[in-house]
């Protein structure tokens, strides 16, 4: 089985390095091949998603991705900016289903800005549609305003859209995921204002007929943002569109206070996927050896489970991570009095050791 | 000076009643005229925003609005649903600037789901553009998908758009508001993905030249949602578009844990405005006499300050509200051990008494 390793920018290379060590210490053999992406892709080949990188990602059975972005690329034209790499990979690989667990490890409850009783034991799964919506809808651009009170002046515009098939397939992913959990699904929309999301709501309601064992409710996105702050534990699985999912999944991750712990998976229709930590490239701490590699290591575990059919190995990695937390090891982002502060590599060492 | 009183649905009538009592107890005379809106408008005249109600709102110097919506109207066609009234009022009255303070009263710090050190003393102002963006952009609807892999099947679609003038005028409101506060403005966009918001960012940056005394920073909406949870006190004024503002202003309100305390103002270019509590119509507790009238009373204070040029009377109301909180009076939504639980009318009585 071939895994494409795309470390990217900022802390990407150092956290991916630890995940690779973990993969290599399993008693399975994987073919790992690296390629530059994001700013690193631009430096090497003049493009954030170089042709060779895209080809490798397409050929591989799964992609392990670090993070992309650095302030130094902020002045590039948009098509050359690092984040275009991740959008390009999603679109070219048809990775329409983004799974983002927001889990609060009991040992890390203190890291949250929310009161312990509100978040302890938090375990929700946000499923974000990832290849449709206003992210890719055409037409878009800056044009002369065609009508209305501002006719003739410049306006920026974008198109939000969802086709029936796109909604159906993400709804199926969500109902099936809910089935494996507490059997409750919240579909987040803005059907009171947007035609796209009235349509979304209608289709999700229709797909629900095939999953009578799952309880479905619908919530407006503004209310969902409130309920995540008010009573996040009431959610089980949330499914929503690309734009709302971008906002809500980050808010949910931050509820835990330990975003350095949260993995993510982006899957196509055949469970091929791209796996990356939920956090960003953190250029401010890059190269300092202090970044938390656990989200990337847990992303590798998700990869084993969803794309490589090695659930047992995934379980082993997840147990090893729990073990190092129980041992009191903490990178600076999750450090608290009474625990042991370690760096990126030491944390990787500890996971490898716990696996043995 | 004429004030249109639009109580609406659910708890709307009972909370507006208390705000009206407060207004009547000032030593200023206002002409108050009521009209039905939302579900009440539909019951009385077959439309959520009856012609007479719109006419009254247009003629008046300001509008005091309760809340609209009730599950019993969920099955009506969209144009007849209660929330269309509020969208119609915003659009017809050109109320493009929505001001939503998120303030945590020291006495109510315990009501928040966030740790006291994270939110105590919170005082941020969210300025949401209210008449543009994907809320009103054309075209929108359900159509046959014109191209791409889903060509020919049904798709829901909407248009996001902002004309230059729309961005400039809300940016001016925001910079001016920041000037009266801590002189820091965060413009929230998604310029890395959306053309509309790259344009937004460019125009806000341009308007900034006229306000060199205000510090401006730009933040992506997903990051803003995270920072609101992580460190909300770092914000002073936030400005954003209609859709992102809908989500972020509700999240920010919920950080306080006391959304029953938060007023809002929606202003046109001449400071005529509509004033309403940030919370909804709460049909589940309607008519029980337990709703918190303070957000509506504080909305009336905002009305006196922004539209009616009676800053002194506004100050008096705000002081009276602080006084009743200091007296320990609490409606059930903000009740804690050791305080005195009161109903809607008793809370109104207490504010009127504190004003005397
Ligand atoms: C970098 C950006 C384009 C991206 C997105 O908006 O999807 C990021 O925020 C994410 O959530 O992966
Ligand atoms: C009721 C709804 C249309 C409205 C909106 O989305 O603007 C509400 O959520 C608000 O924020 O006032």
UniProtKB/TrEMBL annotation, chains A, B:
Entries under Pfam families matching the protein: Iso_dh
Positions annotated to bind NAD(+): 280-292
Binding site for Mg(2+): 222, 246, 250
Gene3D superfamilies: Isopropylmalate Dehydrogenase
Cofactor annotation comment: Binds 1 Mg(2+) or Mn(2+) ion per subunit.
Site (Important for catalysis): 135, 190
A GO biological-process term: L-leucine biosynthetic process
Molecular function as annotated in GO: 3-isopropylmalate dehydrogenase activity; magnesium ion binding; NAD binding
Subcellular location: Cytoplasm
DNA damage found in the keyword field: no
UniProt catalytic activity: (2R,3S)-3-isopropylmalate + NAD(+) = 4-methyl-2-oxopentanoate + CO2 + NADH
SUPFAM superfamilies referenced in this protein's UniProt entry, alphabetically: Isocitrate/Isopropylmalate dehydrogenase-like (SSF53659)
Family in the record: Belongs to the isocitrate and isopropylmalate dehydrogenases family. LeuB type 1 subfamily.
Self-association and partners: Homodimer.
Entry function: Catalyzes the oxidation of 3-carboxy-2-hydroxy-4-methylpentanoate (3-isopropylmalate) to 3-carboxy-4-methyl-2-oxopentanoate. The product decarboxylates to 4-methyl-2 oxopentanoate.
Protein name: 3-isopropylmalate dehydrogenase
Gene, per the UniProt record: leuB
């Amino acid at each position: 089985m071939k895994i494409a390793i795309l470390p990217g920018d900022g802390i990407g290379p150092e956290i991916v390095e630890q995940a690779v060590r973990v993969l290599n210490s399993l008693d399975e053999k994987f073919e790992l091949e690296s390629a530059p992406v994001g700013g690193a892709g631009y430096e090497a080949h003049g493009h954030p998603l170089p042709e060779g990188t895209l080809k490798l990602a397409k050929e591989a059975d799964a992609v392990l991705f670090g993070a992309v972005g650095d302030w130094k690329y902020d002045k590039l034209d948009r098509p050359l900016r690092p984040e275009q790499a991740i959008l390009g990979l999603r679109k070219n690989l048809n990775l329409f289903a983004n799974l983002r667990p927001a889990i609060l490890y009991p040992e890390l409850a203190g890291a949250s800005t929310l009161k312990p009783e509100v978040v302890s034991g938090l375990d929700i799964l946000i499923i974000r549609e990832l290849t449709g919506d206003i992210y890719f809808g055409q037409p878009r651009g800056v044009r002369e305003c065609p009508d209305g009170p501002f006719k003739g002046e410049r306006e920026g515009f974008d198109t939000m859209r969802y086709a029936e098939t796109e909604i159906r397939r993400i709804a199926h992913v969500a109902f099936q995921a809910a089935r494996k959990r507490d059997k409750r699904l919240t579909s987040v929309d803005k059907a009171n204002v947007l035609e796209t999301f009235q349509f979304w709501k209608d289709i999700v309601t229709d797909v629900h007929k095939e999953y009578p064992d799952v309880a479905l409710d619908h919530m407006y996105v503004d209310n969902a943002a409130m309920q995540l702050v008010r009573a996040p534990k009431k959610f089980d699985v949330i499914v929503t569109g690309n734009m709302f999912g971008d906002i809500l999944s980050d808010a949910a991750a931050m509820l835990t206070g330990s975003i350095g712990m949260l993995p993510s998976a982006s899957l196509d229709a055949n469970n091929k996927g791209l796996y990356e930590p939920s956090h960003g490239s953190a250029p401010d701490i890059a190269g300092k050896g202090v970044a938390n590699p656990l989200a990337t290591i847990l992303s590798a575990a998700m990869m084993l489970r969803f794309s490589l059919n090695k659930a047992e190995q995934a379980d082993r990695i997840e147990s090893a991570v729990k073990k190092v937390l129980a041992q009191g090891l903490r990178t600076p982002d999750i450090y608290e009095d009474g625990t042991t502060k370690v760096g990126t590599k030491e944390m990787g060492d500890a996971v490898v050791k716990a696996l043995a």
